[in-house]
Amino acid sequence: xxxxxxxxxxxxxxxxxxxxxxxxxxxxxxxxxxxxxxxxxxxxxxxxxxxxxxxxxxxxxxxxxxxxxxxxxxxxxxxxxxxxxxxxxxxxxxxxxxxxxxxxxxxxxxxxxxxxxxxxxxxxxxxxxxxxxxxxxxxxxxxxxxxxxxxxxxxxxxxxxxxxxxxxxxxxxxxxxxxxxxxxxxxxxxxxxxxxxxxxxxxxxxxxxxxxxxxxxxxxxxxxxxxxxxxxxxxxxxxxxxxxxxxxxxxxxxxxxxxx
Amino acid sequence: xxxxxxxxxxxxxxxxxxxxxxxxxxxxxxxxxxxxxxxxxxxxxxxxxxxxxxxxxxxxxxxxxxxxxxxxxxxxxxxxxxxxxxxxxxxxxxxxxxxxxxxxxxxxxxxxxxxxxxxxxxxxxxxxxxxxxxxxxxxxxxxxxxxxxxxxxxxxxxxxxxxxxxxxxxxxxxxxxxxxxxxxxxxxxxxxxxxxxxxxxxxxxxxxxxxxxxxxxxxxxxxxxxxxxxxxxxxxxxxxxxxxxxxxxxxxxxxxxxx
Lengths: 260, 259
Description:
By secondary structure, chain A is mainly alpha-helical. Helix content of chain A is 77%, strand content 2%.
């Protein structure tokens, strides 16, 4: 499909074709650099294995059922972490937004929690919750909680007065104002918090698996590297990228904001 | 028959403080059933304050508003429903849901609201747009939806706060003509604030001219022609005479502010 736009100069530009060919060119450049590095460049296969070796490893990897179990565990951790962060974040944001004093007290805390490098605290999570799935889920949930709660508060507090005026003029109840006006007006902001949360969850789960775990794709990467099976390690990274990108895309699709 | 009585209404913002502001002072006004009243006056003359008091959105500091003999203490959209300047449609709701929203807020069931909304959207000529979203509609169409939202309550009176303020001249005129017909058919009393001399005369049975701060009623003018009127009315001598008179009146009350 090609969309054409006419520039002021009158030249027809096939827009999406240009963009896609540029993206393709970038991919070609990266792959060419990879091939060059592993052949002429003489980079050690312990640092960067050849493309062929990685692909071979990838295809033998994806037919092994165990790897899908591990992928399933990683996805489960991401979804569970997100579900907890979403439920708690929305509830806390909603409750806090009802009180002006609480909002003023809590807002800087959430903004700060939003920015804080939680990777620093992961060793504590391991200590508290152990090396199993729970530590990944909890860790990801804590990371995603802040942007979700913060955006929920911001969204609910910045509802345009003209919408509230309609509620008042037509005699809306408190519950109706919450559900039909505030939640609707805040929805784009809340959804954006949820999208940020969903992407944080994927990052934190992978990070946590790499830093210390006995299950999941992150653990597979870590163990392949430690056995110096570098091609396997790369292949698992590739699989992890595919899985995560698909998951993020699905989340983004489900959490897109419509009509605004 | 008299529907709304405003008795010696005064609204003071921030009373008791040094910068207390008297928005309206000693206003007496009655609105009859089915009557179309326009309010015109310089900016900041308390027009909106007066309208908000009529609809129970605001409590007067002194005096009172009585609808059908009952004192107005809170908004009752089945008596008087608002149409705001900036349409105030909810962008996250479809046109159909928006048109039914007033009824939902007033306690109607979802099904009843949807049915009434569909009927009113047909009435304002937007029957095919119920599933669209406000941003897909032009400003003029959005304002029709806001009118449908108000009419869905079958209110006895419509309170319109500069309903065409945000529209361009051409849209204003077309929508105005249409709404004039629609409102004449619907038979409600209407109180409408406007900044446009033409609108104030064209629509009204009676024009209220307000003076600036504190807002008082400077003059009431009857427009002696049956409604709905067609555009040609604007070229008639009575219209022109009222227009000239209104223009001078407004200059005078405006001048009072400048001095």
